[in-house]
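All the exercises in this workshop are built on plain-text protein records. A learned vocabulary of local backbone shapes supplies the integers on the structure line. Once this layout is familiar, the rest of the handout is easier to follow. An example says more than a description, so a record of this kind follows:
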Amino acid sequence: MIIDPRLLEPIADRAWPARETAALGGWRLKASDGWSRRINACWPLDEPGRPADEAIDAVEAFYAARGAPACFKLADGAAVPANLAEHLTARGYRPAHETLVMTGATTGDADEAVTLSATPDPAFEAVFLASAAGNAAEARERLDALGRIPAPAFFGRMDIDGQTAALGAAAVEGDWAGIFGMRTLPGHRRKGLARRILGALLDMAEGQGARRAYLQVEADNAPAIALYSGLGFAPAYCYRYWAVGA
């Protein structure tokens, strides 16, 4: 199934809210604490209402006022104007952090071992923060974003021997469900827990009317891509973050 990124990118934008947002015509500026690039970047999804270089100037001023470098999230086939990458390149911006968007059907299975809630419960929050791999500030920023996901949203966790071992979340908008925050603690990997979490989230999303699901995974994360491919997800398009000196 061919997926138009111009349809999916606005949905993905709304599903992962930043602490602060602003609009520059059809460009969406997102700012948080500076860790998660998706909520600390400009998403150029439609015409900015002014020449490209003037729009870039305005974006740079927006982030400079917040003590942050400007960053642009350019999705294949969705960035507006179409030659934006040329303008950014001329100003010293370079692409990095290639990310793959994968899509699949909301075909999952309910699982009694997966606890689902409409908001992150204390156990979910504690394990999400504990899985920070040394960066507690980034984990807190991502957890705050999860808490801002508009309803209907679902947060799933699995407990093993009384301890939460795996997590995941879903955001539903119309026909689409976005999958976020998938985490499995190191001691519980390769046990199929992520597969079960995802299956339960997809089943719940289907019950809310979603027929398709999307997720983002770093392009060099072969194990995660293999997991999602095995569950019927296929690559749809890529995006990259453009920053000076990236």
Remarks:
- Residues 5-100 form one domain.
- The chain has a mean pLDDT of 93.
